[in-house]
Structures are given as C-alpha cells and as structure tokens.
Design brief:
Main location: membrane
Number of strands: 23
InterPro entries: ANF_lig-bd_rcpt, Glu/Gly-bd, Iono_Glu_rcpt_met, Ionotropic_Glu_rcpt, Iontro_rcpt_C, Peripla_BP_I
Keywords: Cell membrane, Glycoprotein, Ion channel, Ion transport, Ligand-gated ion channel, Membrane, Postsynaptic cell membrane, Receptor, Signal, Synapse, Transmembrane, Transmembrane helix, Transport
Radius of gyration: 46 Å
GO molecular function: ligand-gated monoatomic ion channel activity; signaling receptor activity
CATH topology of the largest domain: Rossmann fold
Number of helices: 20
Number of domains: 4
Family: Belongs to the glutamate-gated ion channel (TC 1.A.10.1) family.
C-alpha cells in the first residue's frame, strides 16, 4: 500500500511538472481609440478556437490579458507592458506600429519573453512577410509592366516597401512625393499635369478611401492610368466607381479568400463576432464574412504559430511559468527555448504558408490581383522561391474588352510596310508587309481593334537640335495623336527617352554600301609607286653627287694613278681609272648591286664607295619590301571601314533618310 501510494504521487508530480502548464497566459496590445476592433476580434477568436478545438493543446487553456495603448504615449505603453509581465504572460502580441514596437521589444528582449508582432529584433517573431522579399515582389511587377516613368505617393509613418531600394533597383524616371490626406489632391493634380500615368500608392488603409475620392475628382480614372497599391487590403475597399471606367488598379493580397478553409474560418469568425460586438459592428468589421483585412489575419496566424510552438516544445521540454518584473530585469529561463520552437514552426494559416528564419517570415505567397469590369480577379502570384508568375498576361493589355480602337501610325518601307494603290483597297486593307502582319497577329491575340494610317510628314522622328521639337512618328506618339507606331523604326537612346519601345524583332546597325575600288591599269612608271617621288629625286641627286665626288677625289689622289701598260716598259703611260664616265658607271653598278672591273685603290675613294654602298643597300631593301607590300595590298585597300570613317571624311558624298536615326547619327558626329 505504501509503494502504490508513493508511485501515485510520483505520477502526479511528473504529470504536473513536464510539458506545458495547464494554463498559459498571453498578453496583447491594441491601439486605443481607433474605432477598429477587427484585429482584437481576430485575436479573441483565435484563442477561443484553440481552447475549443483542443487539437493542438489538449491539456492546456490559453487565457489573455489585453491592454490598449496610444502610439503617441510610449511611456504609458511601457508601463502596460510591465503590467503584463508582472501578471505572468508567456508571450506578448504587439501592435504593428514601428515606434511602439521598438519600446515593447526592448523589454521583451531584456526579459527573454517572445514578442510576436512586426519587430525585427531578438526574441521577436515577425509574422509579416519579410520587407526585403515584399520589395522584390513589387520590383518584379514593375519590371514586368515595363514602367520607365512613374510616381510614388507615400506617407511618413507608413511603408510596406523600401522606396530607396526600389528606386535604385529600377532604371526609370521616378517621382516620389510624401503626402498626407490634405495634400492628396494637389499631388494628383501635379502628376496629371506632368502626364505621369503610372502611380505606386504606399499609404495606410485609412487614407486610401480619401485618395480614391480625390482620383475621381481629378478625373484620373481613365484606362491610361495604372495605380499599383502596396496595401494588401484592396479587396476591402469600395471600387464600384472604378469598375466601368477601365482604369488599371493592381495590388497584392496575402489572404486567399477563395480558399475553402479560409472561407470556413471567416464564417465562424463572423458568428463569433456577433457575440462580442453589436450586429452592426460585426457586419462593418467583418464585411459579412466575405473578406478580412490583412492585419486581423496576421493576428490570427500569430496566435496559432505560438500554439504550434508550444505543442512542439511540449514533446521534449518542460515549460516553467514566468515570474518576472521589469524592476528586477531577470530573464525568463524558458523564453529562449520557446522562441526557438516558435521560430521552427512551419504551417499554413489564413495568410498562406508560414516559415521563419531568424524570426523573419521567409515563406509566403502573394496573389497579384487586378480590377476588371465586374470584380477583382487574381492574375498571378509571387513567392520567394518562384518569384513572379503571371497567369493571365492579357489583363494588363486587354483593350478589346474596353471597346477601344487604337490609332496606329506607320511609314512605308519595303518589305516592312507596303501599300496597295488600287481603288478596291480601303482602310487597313491598303497596307501589307512584315510589320503589318505582326500588328494583325498581336491584335488578335491581345484583343483590340486598330486604325492604321501613314504618319502625316512621312518621317520616323528626329529631334530638332535648335528648337528641341520632335517630328515624325515620335511626335505623333508624344502628342497622343496616335496610340501605337509600327514599322522598321530604329531604337535609339534619344527616342527611348521620350517614347516606349517593344522588344526589337530585328537587330541591325548602320550599313554602308559602296563600290570596291578597282586596281589602276598598269603604267610605264608603275615601278616607281612603292617610293614617293621625292625619294626618287633625292636618290638621283645623290647619284650625281657621289659620281662627281668619286671622279674629283680619284683625280686628286695619286694612288688612283697607275701605269696603263705595265708590261710595256718602253711605253710607260700613266692613267686614272675614274674618268667621268667610269665614275658614273661605278656608282650605278653599286646601286644596282652589280660588280664592275673598276675598284677604288685610294682610301678616300674607298670611303666614298663604302658610304654609297651602304646607302644603296638600304634603298634597295626598302624598295623591295615596299614593292612586295604594294603589289599584295593594292586590292585590299578600302577607303571606309566604318560609319565613323564616313562621317569624318569629305571626299565621298553620301545621303540618309530625312529625320531618321542614321541622319541623327551623322549629324551628331559632324562638327
């Protein structure tokens, strides 16, 4: 009997000291006097659902303490956080306000209490998607839409995206304006006057309703405008006035309201809300179970992430209740283990797949949604692993459903655009060619009608260097007299700075056609071509001077005088071999590298002969080399190698098409 009683006591001791305590207390902070209770309702409902289902924590109940804080009173916020710590909360669900989150996290970090909210510090779990990934998602969409010029409206204390990173990552003309509700109208008017049609709106949900009204007042709800909202709650706003004006409104959403599990939770949440609030309030904040704002959905997921972390911890560790105060600053010994298990949670909640890395959410799915005539539809999605995937690209270029006929201008150039001149051809049937076929195919695939006509001045488009005005098809597009231009139009930097181009269907440069120079007919004195005429004159002068010098020096030198008939002793005749004719013969023989019977005897004549021989060697070698090069390269000489050579010379006349890219090229290079 004694042993059985002891065993029973040990069993009770193990039961109450291992795993998770039967009661877990958590704290939550919500904004005070905001008039919105949706986040608080989602928090209460998540705790209620956990305690009711018992699927995650069958032996544990979660109780909560709620405090209401003001973002303008950080001291009061700190006091209320310390009050929650003193009552023994094991986690604190903090608000999304960045200023208050910093103060709250400093206390949680010092006491090792998990802070579940939007903070990026230690001992915090950020259930919001990582801002870096969200920024990449918006950058990918902007690049897909090929925005080269757009504006950004942002509020000081609000920002889902990092505007500086976005502006650095995209090569575009960006106009950023910090706004408040009082300045919405003036900034929109500024963008309208500057013809900025693509606008990113990074403001809070409270200001979006007022901004939408200002857009209507400015009549900026036409199809040429495209608004890209950074808010994930676009589906919760009334867009009835925008549906039938064909204005482009795009955004991301984090909650897939079409998911069956999400619909069931929203329906149950609405029923729970009627027991907490009055019926009118429940309908207002829950949108009659049709949708839910992102913040309440994230609060709901935060509670479940905490519960899953507790469930995982229960299997291998014992969680001891905290007994902390802000005065002692003694950290909770169970906080580190709990935060590690929460950080390892992988789950799919209202906001999609959830996974963390160092407290930051790195697994999620953003649905790209766009307003159409009847409703908001999903047109793609973005994930950190797969990046942007557009499932319905036609919605971004769907003009057929808007019953809009585009004005398309072109210019005649065979074989791209040609024209039938018969009387039986009218309208678009007058034109045919490669570019016309491309336009027809695009109109069928995208779905739009068009009116094709020639540009009035028959020019592609060039900028006047004096007035700065454009002409041709470029001017027609800039003045909105045409919607599209089609043809063999060259993409240049100057044109691309004022109009947008599609991807080129052909890559070409400036080609120059000219007749290859023919070889000159053989002439009598063609052998003289390897050397300049001046060289030949200098050689001839040197020949005469050297010959005369040898003649004179030979006459003056006694050694050059010798007996003409040495064997005839009776007739001794003394003569000189360097006569005038022999001197010239000796010099020309040396130049031609041929020997002669005359050779100098005196030192003076030998020195002159050696100098002349060395000179002859250099001249003959140079002539031989130049002659070989002249004969082999004569047919390979081209007067023009590239367009720059043509632009810098004046001997060859050339012409270009007026107001074309080639004309602009040569005009910019000719001083």
């Amino acid at each position: 009997m004694y042993w059985s009683g002891a065993a029973f006591c040990i069993f009770l001791f193990i039961t109450h000291t291992s795993g998770v305590p039967p009661v877990i207390r958590v704290g939550a902070l919500f904004p005070k006097h905001t008039g919105k209770h949706s986040s608080e309702l989602a928090f209460r409902y998540a705790v209620h659902r956990l305690n009711r289902d018992k699927s995650l924590l069958p032996e544990t109940n979660i109780v909560y303490d709620i405090e209401y804080v003001s973002r303008f009173d950080s001291f009061d916020t700190v006091q209320k956080v310390c009050r929650l710590v003193q009552v023994g909360v094991q986690a604190i669900f903090s608000p999304t306000d960045s200023v208050l989150a910093t103060h709250i996290n400093s206390i949680c970090d010092a006491l090792d209490i998990p802070d579940i909210g939007r903070s990026t510090h230690d001992f915090s779990i950020n259930v919001h998607p990582s801002q870096q990934y969200v920024n990449n998602a918006f950058i990918d969409v902007i690049r897909y839409l090929n925005w080269t010029r757009f504006g950004i409206l942002y509020e000081k204390d609000y920002g889902i995206i990092n505007l500086h990173q976005l502006s650095r990552s995209i090569q575009a003309e960006v106009h950023m304006r910090k706004v408040s509700q009082a300045s919405y109208l003036s900034v929109l008017n500024e963008f309208k006057n500057k013809e900025i049609h693509n606008i990113i709106i990074d403001i809070s949900s409270d200001g979006i309703t007022a901004l939408l009204k200002n857009i209507l007042q400015q009549q900026m709800n036409e199809y040429k405008y495209h608004y890209f909202f950074t808010s994930f709650d676009l589906e919760t706003f009334d867009l009835e006035d925008f549906k039938y004006n064909f204005v482009n409104i795009t955004s991301f959403r984090l909650v897939d309201i079409g998911d069956v599990a999400v619909k069931e939770i929203l329906k149950d949440l609405e029923f729970f809300g009627r027991t907490i609030f009055q019926e009118s309030d429940a309908n207002l904040y829950l949108r009659k179970a049709v949708t839910i704002e992102t913040e309440p959905a994230l609060i709901f997921d935060s509670v479940y992430v905490f519960a899953i972390g507790l469930q995982t911890l229960e299997q291998s560790h014992t969680l001891y209740l905290s007994n902390l105060t802000c005065d002692d600053e003694i950290p909770w010994n169970g906080g580190l283990s709990l935060i590690n298990y929460i950080n390892a949670v992988e789950w799919k909640g209202l906001t999609g797949p959830i996974q963390f890395k160092e407290g930051q959410r790195v697994q999620f799915k953003l649905d790209l949604i766009k307003l159409k005539q009847h409703s908001i539809v999903k047109v793609g999605e973005w994930t950190p692993q797969g990046y942007l995937n557009i499932t319905e690209p036609s919605v971004f270029f769907d003009s057929g459903s808007m019953n809009v006929t585009l004005v398309v201008i072109t210019i005649l150039e065979t074989p791209y655009v040609m024209m039938h001149y018969g009387k039986n051809f009218t309208g678009n049937e007058r034109f045919y060619g490669f570019c016309v076929d491309i336009l027809e195919t695009i109109s069928h695939e995208v779905g739009f009608d068009y009116i094709l006509d020639l540009v009035p001045d028959r020019k592609y488009g060039a900028k006047d260097p004096e007035t700065g005005e454009w002409n041709g098809m470029v001017a027609q597009l800039m003045k909105y007299k045409a919607d599209l231009a089609v043809g063999s139009m060259t993409i240049t930097y100057a044109r691309e700075s004022v109009i947008d181009f599609t991807k080129p269907f052909m890559n070409l440069g400036i080609s120059i056609l000219f007749k290859v120079p023919e070889s000159e007919p053989t002439r009598l004195f063609s052998f003289m071509n390897p050397l300049a005429i001046e060289i030949w004159i200098y050689v001839l002068i040197a020949y005469f001077l050297v010959s005369i010098s040898i003649y004179i020096v030979g006459k003056l030198s006694p050694i050059e005088w010798h007996c003409i008939h040495p064997c005839d002793l009776d007739n001794i005749t003394i003569g000189n071999q360097f006569t005038m004719s022999d001197s010239f013969w000796f010099t020309i023989g040396t130049l031609m590298q041929q020997s002669s019977d005359i050779y100098p005897r005196a030192t003076s004549t030998r020195i002159i002969s050696s100098i002349w021989g060395f000179f002859s060697l250099i001249i003959v070698a140079s002539y031989t080399a130049n002659l070989a090069a002249f004969l082999t390269t004569e047919r390979m000489i081209n007067p023009i190698e590239n367009a720059d050579d043509l632009a810098t010379q004046t001997e060859i006349s050339y012409g270009t098409l007026e107001s074309g890219s080639t004309m602009t090229f040569f005009r910019n290079r000719i001083p």
